[in-house]
Amino acid sequence: MPKLWDDTIEAHRQAVRDATLDATAALVAERGVTGVTMSEIAKRTGLGRATLYKYFPDVETILLAWHERQVGNHLHRLSSIRDQTGRLDAVLEAYAVICSEHPKIDLDASLHRADDVAKARRHLTDYLAQLLAEEVAAGRVRNDAPPKELATYCVHALAAAGVAPSKAAVRRLVAVTLAGLRSPVPEQGESEAGTGSATARRMTPGPLASG
């Protein structure tokens, strides 16, 4: 079979898949996960039910595919911000904006394969942990907790942007999250050596270390 034909077929399949994921996400946002059926998805997408079942066996599989696509898109967007700016604060603000724009779909409470959802989200946490490890090594982020824990803190803290009432509220949330990444102020009476170390750790997160 000619390569051009193969590419055309594959592009068509991808277009059908993307349209199905988008239609399903829109329906779930309107009615909730339990209020959506394969028939409704087929109708919204403009496909026959038989065609839809060739791509996905059920609603849950569609939602898992949608979630994986979302996480992949988010990682690509954050990587681009990191490459363009080299700043941790810009990456975290971009993630907060993503959370504020994200369709409000609670997959954890609705899908049986919660492990698959958690696995996809771990990719995001692992990516942020890599960035934070660079920041810790450069002395711009607190070093009294492992980067993975700090990344988990960022993911959960910035998820609150999903219910933020305004862009200004999102920016305030980012500022509070960044403040939590700085080292705590040392207690009075801390040794001179300890004070010097703490001062270095209190530095505001700035440009990411080159990687």
- Strand share of the residues? under 5%
* Beta-strand segment tally: 0
Mean pLDDT across residues = 82
Helix content: 55-70%
Largest sheet composition: none
How many DSSP helices? Answer: 9
Question: Secondary structure elements and their pairing?
Answer:
Blueprint: H1 3-31, H2 38-45, H3 49-55, H4 59-85, H5 88-101, H6 114-137, H7 147-158, H8 167-181, H9 192-201
List keywords for this structure.
mainly alpha; elongated; about 210 residues; 9 helices
Describe the structure.
The protein is mainly α and 211 residues long. It has nine helices and no strands. The chain has helices at residues 3-31, 38-45, 49-55, 59-85, 88-101, 114-137, 147-158, 167-181, 192-201. Helix 4 (59-85) packs parallel to helix 6 (114-137), helix 6 (114-137) crosses helix 7 (147-158) and helix 7 (147-158) runs antiparallel to helix 8. Mean pLDDT is 82; it is low at 191-204.
What's the short story on this structure?
About 70% of the residues lie in helices and about 0% in strands. It is built from 9 helices and no strands.
